[in-house]
């Protein structure tokens, strides 16, 4: 038996229904009134009927509890895997920053020893650019891009512009609810680019931490089952170079799907991967 919240609610309704039926049969108004005296009023045939019903529900609940325990273990495993991936990613990013800074500082030291004014100015510029790139990458790691949300024409009226920003913010909050990311904190959100009648502008959303971004991206698949957001999808805030590389991976994945549609393809760690469809 596979565990689901819907199945849990269904079992709860069946149990409540049987308890209500039993209370009606022995003519009591509360569950606390069910005791050996009141239950003794039942005849043998009805007693067997209720007993069989409760035994069946008990077996169903036991199977449901086992399925829930299995699901919890699976989720724990996924959380640990995700945490390990985040740790490795942060370690890789720190290593890249360290290598960049060390390289630029070594170049700066070499130039300083040579006392070459022109080269010293160029190397100082390189150091600044490296630090700027690292800072921008850190900022992008807290952003997420939302595609497919209905856009509206902008006006020059200030208060109408504020309302449109608020509407985008409310939409993002609804997306967080659908994806069970209620603890994710939205810092700001706004449309990207100028409004055009034939295009839908994406929404750039800044979250509190990069971990919030990872969580929301992992649970974005839940949008497909939402009637309101089935056509909406989420993506990290990529640089132009990263977008070009990602588009190549998407094209590669489409070609693989055409060749063999029996597998489930996805992109992870800048590679196209696949698993067998369930």
Structure description:
62% of the residues lie in helices and 12% in strands. Helix 1 (5-26) runs antiparallel to helix 3 and helix 3 (44-114) runs antiparallel to helix 4. It has a 4-stranded antiparallel beta sheet, covered by helices on one side. A two-stranded antiparallel sheet has the order 5-6. The mean pLDDT is 78. With 278 residues, the chain is α+β, with helices and mostly antiparallel strands.
Going by helix content, strand content and strand pairing, the class is alpha+beta
How would you characterize the largest beta sheet?
4 strands, antiparallel
Tell me the quaternary state: single chain
Can you count the helices? 7
Strand content: 5-15%
Numbering strands along the chain, what is their spatial order in the largest sheet?
A: 2-3-1-4
- Mean of pLDDT: 78
Regions with little confidence, pLDDT below 50 for 5+ residues? none
Please tell me what the overall shape is.
elongated
Helicity range: 55-70%
In N-to-C order, the SSE pattern is HHHHEHEEHEHEE
Radius of gyration based on Cα positions = 29 Å
Intertermini distance? 15 Å
Give the beta-strand count: 6
Give the SSE layout.
Layout: H1 5-26, H2 36-39, H3 44-114, H4 117-140, E1 143-147, H5 158-178, E2 186-191, E3 203-207, H6 210-218, E4 233-236, H7 240-259, E5 263-268, E6 271-276
Antiparallel strand pairs: 1-3, 1-4, 2-3, 5-6
Helix pairs in contact: 1-3, 3-4
């Amino acid at each position: 038996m596979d565990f689901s919240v819907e199945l849990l609610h269904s079992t709860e309704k069946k149990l409540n229904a049987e308890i209500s039926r039993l209370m009606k049969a022995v003519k009591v108004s509360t569950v606390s009134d069910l005791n050996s005296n009141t239950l003794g009023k039942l005849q043998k045939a009805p007693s067997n009927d209720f007993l069989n019903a409760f035994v069946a529900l008990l077996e169903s609940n036991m199977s449901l509890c086992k399925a829930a325990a299995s699901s919890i273990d699976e989720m724990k495993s996924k959380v640990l895997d995700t945490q390990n991936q985040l740790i490795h990613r942060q370690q890789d990013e720190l290593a890249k920053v360290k290598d960049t800074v060390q390289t630029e500082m070594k170049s700066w030291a070499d130039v300083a020893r040579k006392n070459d004014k022109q080269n010293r100015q160029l190397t100082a510029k390189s150091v600044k650019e490296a630090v700027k790139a690292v800072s921008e990458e850190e900022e992008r790691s807290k952003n997420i891009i939302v595609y497919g949300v209905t856009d509206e024409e902008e006006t020059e009226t200030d208060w109408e512009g504020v309302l449109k920003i608020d509407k985008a913010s409310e939409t993002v909050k609804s997306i967080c609810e659908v994806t069970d990311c209620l603890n994710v904190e939205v810092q700001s959100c706004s449309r990207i680019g100028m409004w055009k009648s034939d295009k839908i502008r994406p929404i750039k959303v800044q979250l509190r931490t990069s971990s919030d971004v990872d969580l929301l991206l992992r649970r974005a698949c839940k949008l497909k089952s939402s009637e309101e957001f089935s056509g909406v999808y989420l993506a990290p805030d990529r640089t132009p170079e990263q977008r070009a590389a990602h588009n190549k991976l998407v094209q590669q994945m489409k070609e693989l799907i055409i060749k063999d549609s029996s597998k489930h393809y996805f992109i992870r760690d800048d590679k196209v991967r696949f698993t067998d469809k369930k």
